[in-house]
Write a structure and sequence with these properties.
Blueprint lengths: L1 H18 L5 H9 L3 H13 L3 H13 L7 H13 L3 H13 L8 H13 L7
Length: 129
């Protein structure tokens, strides 16, 4: 039994040093809430690329609000769409806002905005109604 625990500990330590210690979504959210946008951005980006809808939504917010990155509404829309397609009602609502408002970087699309507002409303988001 001791041998098994020792091997498990060695494997764990090897994984931590080889790939680096990575935070997860809760740590990224904590960093974001503390204004540590560089750390949050790195972790949200990693998780978003792996398909994490919450990270995709939060990354979209960071690009929309210029938090730790230069404002980029195309990237904000890209990440919001990914999260919205996974059923995230907050992303659906925010994507609706981006599409409704439009700007020089993203064209206004009231029809698609209404679709996303409807999906968010169907999930109980009263602001989307």
């Amino acid at each position: 039994m001791k041998q098994w625990r020792r091997m498990a500990l060695i494997a764990l330590m090897a994984g931590m040093t080889a790939g680096g210690v990575r935070a997860g979504l809760p740590e990224a959210v904590r960093a974001y809430n503390n204004g540590q946008f560089k750390e949050a951005l790195a972790e949200f980006s990693r998780l978003a690329k792996q398909g994490n809808g919450q990270a995709q939504f939060r990354l979209g917010i960071m690009y929309a609000k210029s938090q730790g990155v230069q404002r980029d509404l195309k990237l904000a829309r890209h990440w919001m769409l990914k999260a919205a397609e996974q059923g995230d009602r907050n992303a659906q609502y925010q994507l609706g806002l981006l599409l409704e408002q439009g700007d020089a970087a993203t064209r206004e699309d009231s029809t698609q905005a209404a679709v996303w507002f409807g999906k968010a409303a169907d999930q109980g988001m009263t602001n989307a109604q």
